[in-house]
């Protein structure tokens, strides 16, 4: 019984760690290659269907100068913190500023934590 309680406690702390985006950058790079790379480059100034994601963590939304963002993204004032990225990537089209990104999102919290950790290395 006590053993079971300890396991529950460990699982819930793992879940909150994932939410804080303490993921695995190597796994995140794989997720990125599989799900983001068709539309996003990680090099400075390289825009594809989506804007370059170089140094995206901590930057203001819609701030890549030569990318044509949607009006919704231009109106979004929430800096791309790990928490904001987590909400956006969970449901890009449901999220208010996601209208132009035709991508269904990453339903797995683990995948989001990993990809956000990988994005944090791009600086
Ligand atoms: C089908 C193409 C497509 C895919 C796949 C895609 N994106 Fe996007 N992404 C876009 C577009 C287009 C925009 C611009 C959205 C707008 O202006 O509303 C965007 C915007 C973003 C932004 C905001 C950038 C900024 O400068 O404000 C982030 C962050 C982002 N995407 C991350 C990701 C991540 C991480 C993945 C993979 C998990 C991903 N995207 C997958 C097309 C895509």
Describe this structure in words.
There is one protein chain. With 123 residues, this protein is mainly alpha-helical. The chain has one domain (2-120): Cytochrome c-like domain (Cytochrome Bc1 Complex, Chain D, domain 2). It contains five helices and no strands. It has helices at 2-19, 25-35, 71-75, 82-90, 109-120. Helix 2 (25-35) crosses helix 5 and helix 4 crosses helix 5 (109-120). The longest helix is centred in the N-terminal third of the chain and has 18 residues, at 2-19. The N and C termini lie far apart (47 Å). Residues 35-36, 38-40, 49-51, 53, 56, 61-64, 69-70, 72-73, 80, 85, 89, 99-103, 106, 115 line the site of heme C.
Structural features:
5 helices, mainly alpha, binds heme C, single chain, Cytochrome Bc1 Complex, Chain D, domain 2, 123 residues
Give the topology.
Layout: H1 2-19, H2 25-35, H3 71-75, H4 82-90, H5 109-120
Bound molecules: heme C (HEC).
Heme C is lined by residues 35-36, 38-40, 49-51, 53, 56, 61-64, 69-70, 72-73, 80, 85, 89, 99-103, 106, 115.
Write the CATH homologous superfamily.
Cytochrome c-like domain
Structural class: mainly alpha
Q: What is bound: which ligands? A: heme C
Described by the principal axes of the CA atoms, the overall outline is globular
**What is the CATH third-level topology name?**
Cytochrome Bc1 Complex, Chain D, domain 2
Query: In angstroms, what separates the terminal alpha carbons?
Result: 47 Å
Order of helices and strands: HHHHH
List low-pLDDT spans: 4-19
Largest sheet, if any?
A: none
The share of residues in helices is 40-55%
Overall pLDDT confidence? 84
Cα-atom radius of gyration: 16 Å
